[in-house]
Design a protein that fits this description.
The complex is a heterodimer. Helix content of chain A is about 40%, strand content about 15%. Chain A is of the alpha/beta class. Helices cover about 45% and strands about 15% of the residues of chain B. Classes of the chains: A alpha/beta, B alpha+beta. The complex binds pyridoxal-5'-phosphate.
């Protein structure tokens, strides 16, 4: 592990050295997806160049090599979140698939009419809709946990909401729309005291905060590789062993079975029971390279760097006038969500794009919290460890120009 | 219903935009066009008239008079509204056959605005164009 050096980190991301619309690219859409360092790109290319083969099946050298790398990647990811065993780390396509898997497999077996599922009012749609789908099947209800005006969970309201009928509490570690870091340890303890299970959506925290599933004592935790410098199409679901053992498979097919006959099929053991079909082998190997990358420097220094960018961006934004922050929690990842009083967020986003600045505008797949705040959406600039003060300065210059145009 | 398509034609817009070389002047012009586009009366902002974009809705109301189609379109975003004006300049007051025959992609390419018609933009513009074309098809 080396010291965190923002300039040398940035140099590892080839995509950043390009022009967009005649301007040097300023990439501030990291909450949507992060860019990939050379090491990840190389790991994927080298896998296809030298090792490609199907896993767990072939009786030949390449298949053995691919299987070994694939399973090493699983062990590495499991260790990264401090899962007690690697069998509790299931590969998925990403956060969305992980939540759907739990909602379908755990939910259908454990929810019944009158049961309650609590999700925060600022969840991403992918941590709302799968629960609504299983609620429709089982007669359970999905209810929001109140979020106050600053974008933090109302913990008193949450505690008051809990009762024996609450079977699942599904919350994001960090809000993608606002950046708020939720007190998940407290949430988990409160939920457990009432006998409810907890799923943590770590999509937005995995690249920024250390995660220890045993210390948290969460029942399930999901995340996506592409938001932590890894490839798209790969992610992971962690679950407590007894829960995973008790759950039925999510999909049927090859790999997930022990034996198949027309009189009865025996499912494979963990984790394969939940991994039907040929997995995203290159994705898993690429994601392991992303973990290597994240462990190659002091992560707390990287976090401090991101926080500095956030603080200076937020101060400068308010100095510009006409722009207002949305989400003012004292604990945030480096997400600056804002609106303006002179135009629609989309206008601002389009003008930033013309100036080479990539941000996201819209409701960020978190429509309920936008409705609560009575806004059509926000402009969201989200910083990563490869961003720098020059990016902040360019964002500000672009915002100043956007205001000149629109106000 | 509006001067777009009658007073201000697609040829006028191509002509004016060709004078500008920088994106700034072009966008200023588009925003100004949007300001000239009459708003759609609130009572017509119904589910039936909504064209959903990922980021902001576009509303579109159409009417047929003497064999010609007339449209009113609206958006909460200035630039999208300006782009709606650009679209209406091409379609308003035209017969269904003229609407169907108009090469909208070519028009946007000529205006160097083609990226705004791409499906990924999610600004509702593409869906609005499709709805106008469908309206023309149904009226013909
Ligand atoms: C908080 C949160 N949850 C879930 C998701 C969905 O992740 P994915 O699209 O990678 O499945 C995202 C990503 O947009 C997110 O930010």
């Amino acid at each position: 592990m080396t010291q965190f050096d923002a300039a040398s980190i940035r140099a590892q991301f080839p995509i950043l050295a390009q022009e967009v619309n005649g301007h040097p690219l300023v990439y501030l859409d990291n909450a949507a997806t992060t860019q990939k360092p050379n090491s990840v790109i190389d790991a994927i290319a080298n896998y296809y160049r030298y090792d490609n083969s199907n896993v767990h099946r072939g009786a030949h050298a390449l298949s053995d090599r691919a299987t070994e790398k694939f399973e090493l990647a699983r062990a590495q990811l499991a260790a990264f979140i401090n899962a007690p065993t690697k069998e509790q780390l299931l590969w998925t396509r990403g956060t969305t698939e992980g939540i759907n898997l739990v909602a379908a497999s755990w939910g259908r077996a454990n929810l019944k009419s009158g049961d309650r599922v609590l999700v925060s009012a600022m969840e991403h749609h992918s941590n709302i809709v799968p629960w609504q789908m299983v609620a429709e099947l089982t007669g359970a209800t999905v209810e929001p946990i109140a979020v106050n005006a600053s974008g933090t969970i109302d913990m008193d309201a949450f505690a008051a909401q809990l009762d024996a009928r609450v079977k699942m509490v599904a919350v994001g570690h960090v809000s993608n729309a606002l950046g708020s870091i939720n007190p998940i340890k407290e949430i988990i303890a409160l939920a457990h005291a009432q006998g409810a299970q907890v799923l943590i959506d770590a999509a937005q925290s995995i690249a920024h905060l250390p995660i220890d599933v045993q210390a948290l004592d969460c029942d399930f935790l999901v995340f996506s590789g592409h938001k932590m410098f890894g490839p798209t199409g790969i992610g992971a679901l962690y679950g407590k062993r007894d829960l995973l053992e008790a759950m039925s498979p999510y999909q049927g097919g090859g790999e997930m079975i022990e034996s198949v006959s027309f009189t009865g099929t025996v499912y494979n053991q963990l984790p394969y029971k939940f991994e039907a079909g040929t997995p995203n082998i290159a994705g898993a190997i690429g994601l392991a390279a992303a973990v290597d990358f994240l462990q190659s420097f002091d992560r707390s220094a990287a976090d401090a760097h991101e926080q500095q960018l956030l603080n200076s961006a937020q101060l400068q934004l308010l100095e510009l006038g006409g722009y207002q922050l949305v989400g003012t929690s004292a604990n945030k990842t480096a997400v600056m969500s804002f609106v303006c009083d002179f135009a629609h967020p989309q206008d601002v986003g389009m003008l930033l794009d013309q100036q080479g600045v990539a941000v996201r505008t819209g409701n960020h797949c978190a429509q309920p919290i936008m409705d609560q705040f009575a806004i059509p959406g926000t402009v969201r600039a989200s910083f990563s460890l490869y961003n720098n003060q020059d990016d902040v300065a360019k964002l500000m210059a672009a915002l100043k120009k956007a205001k000149m145009f629109l106000a | 219903m509006s001067e777009f398509g009658t007073e201000i034609t697609s040829a006028d817009i191509i002509d004016t935009l060709s004078f500008f070389d920088g994106w700034e002047e072009r966008y200023k012009y588009i925003i100004d066009l949007g300001k000239e586009l009459p708003a759609l009366d609130e009572r017509y902002k119904t589910d039936e008239n909504i064209v959903r974009g990922c980021q902001s809705p576009v509303w579109l109301r159409s009417e047929s008079r003497d064999g010609a189609l007339f449209f009113v379109a609206d958006s909460d975003a200035f630039i999208v509204k300006g782009l709606l004006a650009v679209v209406l300049a091409a379609y308003n007051g035209k017969t269904p056959a003229e609407v169907a025959a108009f090469d909208i992609d070519g028009y946007f390419a000529e205006l160097n605005l083609l990226n705004h018609l791409s499906a990924t933009r999610g600004n509702g513009l593409k869906s609005m164009v499709q709805r106008i074309q469908r309206t023309a098809h149904e009226a013909s």
